[in-house]
Amino acid sequence: MTRESVAAAAERLAAARDVTLLAHVNPDADALGSALALGIALRRRGATVRVAFAEPDRMPESLVPLDVCGLVVPPAEVPAAAELLVACDAAAPARLGALADRLATAGATVMIDHHASNPGFGDVQVLDPAAEATVVLVHRVLVAMGEPLGVDVARCLYAGLVTDTRGFRTAGPDAHRIAAELVAAGVDPEALVRPIMDTHPYAWLAALGGALERAVLEPAAAGGLGLVHTTVPLADVARFRTEEVDGVVDVLRTAAEAEVAAVLKQVAPDRWVTSLRSTGRVDVAAAAIRLGGGGHRAAAGFTCDAGLDDVLAALRRALEPDIHRSVDPLSTQVP
Ligand SMILES: [Mn+2]
Question: Which residues line ion ligand 1, judged by CB < 5 Å?
Fold first, then answer.
């Protein structure tokens, strides 16, 4: 990523009167934190601002406190032709879901993202796979705009930073320096982070216990580095928030015998959204891309329309070193 693209993004944003900021579908703290941090700063400057995402139909409950200005609007309120459209943390246009068509109709588009699988899109592309989170790039843009942070913007940035780095485990020196700046701006890390990362309804504990009980270790998978996988059934996906369901993989990944952890979430009878994690020796983004998904080397995901056994078979093949060149792992995707 170039200094020029950050400067170009800052210039467009500073001059904009009306800005539409989009997060990816099923937005996480990095996507919404990025969009809201920019949105709050731009609103402060007097611009008309809205933040939106195509689905689901409401904000993740734990992230609602970040939207102090009430910037999030339903997708129906996104203009058909936005003046300036900013895509945040979306690895590809398709990650904007039903709002991806707004890229073509917008007066100008800025893309801010840190996914290695991002092919590049938009008029201005702030894309840096070395950045730990998209909020790191948003921070650079805000600095280039000469914007003071303020506690509300700082909280949005911190939320994205702490979650995408799993509590700063994957954060480099720059990200730690940014964190120090955010705390100095007034962020209370424990008060901010606990509701986002460490708070679940009591009923979730039993459901989590079930998911862990169903865990299966396959030591020979992933080229002998090991795969541990489990499922979250439709009833639990429907009953609990993404804050609960998406946390299962963080427990599963602690299995020492497996390099790769996979949680298969049933979102419809024959539709599974799979979260993949690795400790770094296996590139799970490469496996996810083979299965139509994407992500990062150590954290990725894909969606499969198939029965559970077929999804698992496709996953095992996608994780095998070299085999993907001779076997199409998608061949069993649609039964
Ligand atoms: Mn991110």
Answer: 30, 89, 134, 164
pTM of the model: 0.87
Distance, CA 335 to ligand 1 centroid (Å)? Answer: 33
The mean predicted confidence, pLDDT, of the chain is 94
Q: What is the CA(164)–ligand 1 centre distance, in A? A: 6
**Residue type present at position 239:** R
Q: Which domains does the chain have, with CATH numbers?
A: 3-197 (3.90.1640.10), 202-332 (3.10.310.30)
Å from CA of 295 to ligand 1 middle: 9
Predicted confidence (pLDDT) per residue in 295-308, tens digit: 889 999 999 999 99
Length of the chain equals 335
| C-alpha span between 304 and 333 (Å, rounded) | 6
Q: Nearest 5°: phi and psi at 263?
A: -115, 120
- The residue written with tokens 């954060």 in the block is 171
